[in-house]
Amino acid sequence: MSRRILVILGQPSSNSLCAALASTYADAARHAGAEVRLLELGEMQFDPILHHGYEHSQPLETDLRNAQVDITWAQHLVWVYPIWWGGLPALLKGFLDRIFLPGFAFKYRSNSALWDRLLAGRTAELLVTMDFPPWYYRWVQRQPGHRQMKQSILEFSGIRPVRVHSFGPVVKSSAARRAAWIEHVRMLGTRAGLR
After folding, report:
1. Judging by beta carbons within 10 Å of its beta carbon (0-12, 13-18, 19+), is residue 91 exposed, middle or buried?
2. In what order do the strands lie in the sheet containing 123-129?
3. What is residue 113's predicted lDDT score, i.e. its pLDDT?
4. In whole angstroms, how large is the CA radius of gyration of the chain?
5. Domains of the chain
């Protein structure tokens, strides 16, 4: 049985390095034998603002309901996005706020601070671009965006292991450097599709 992979492009622009990385990974995994679906958040119709927090239910738009179906279907989730201002792009954060809800991603146990991780059994990869060297983001800034996505969102919901691949600095990068990143992502997609 082929592996089910969902690639989520969290960069709003479909004409970006992130978009090229997402399509390269998806194509390579598909070519290696995986079933692959691609979600492009910039093409989806939804309100990214959780207007009342978790106090009141906010009905999900059709695209968000379909995204939940895709996440439930997937065995492996690949999140592709840039680091902006040290963290996730607003559109990606809004997407997560809207669909990683109690009852879908997690469920607190009654009379307890513990919770059930409802998305357990899935793995993930983060393909993240940035405009500074990955070593600087790791050792100087302490990777706030990576930690938020990996630990506070995905692992909290039961998705593990989560592997992180950082690409940067993108600003002023050469065509050869970008081609090398794309080739690396092609290898990652092929490897994921063969599992």
Report:
1. middle
2. 35-40, 4-9, 76-82, 123-129, 162-167
3. 87
4. 17
5. 4-194 (3.40.50.360)
Binning the chain into helix, strand and coil, the percentages to the nearest 5 are 40, 20, 40
The answer to whether 67 and 74 have CB atoms below 8 angstroms apart is no
- Please name which of 104, 10, 116 lies closest in space to residue 57, comparing C-alpha atoms: 104
The answer to whether 10 and 95 are in contact (CB under 8 A) is: yes
Question: For residue 160, which of 152, 148, 150, 170 has the smallest C-alpha distance?
Answer: 150
- Output the pLDDT for position 111: 87
pTM recorded for the entire structure: 0.96
61: pLDDT strictly greater than 90: yes
CA dihedral 3, 152, 66, 11 (to 10 degrees): -90
Give the helix ranges, DSSP H, for 40-125: 62-73, 90-99
Secondary structure of 6-21 as H, E, C letters:
EEEECCCCCCCHHHHH
Which long-range contacts does 179-184 make (Cβ < 8 Å, 24+ apart)? 181/17, 181/21, 182/20, 182/21, 182/24
The DSSP symbol for 2 reads P
- Angstrom distance (rounded) from CA 84 to CA 101: 24
pLDDT at 85 over 90: yes
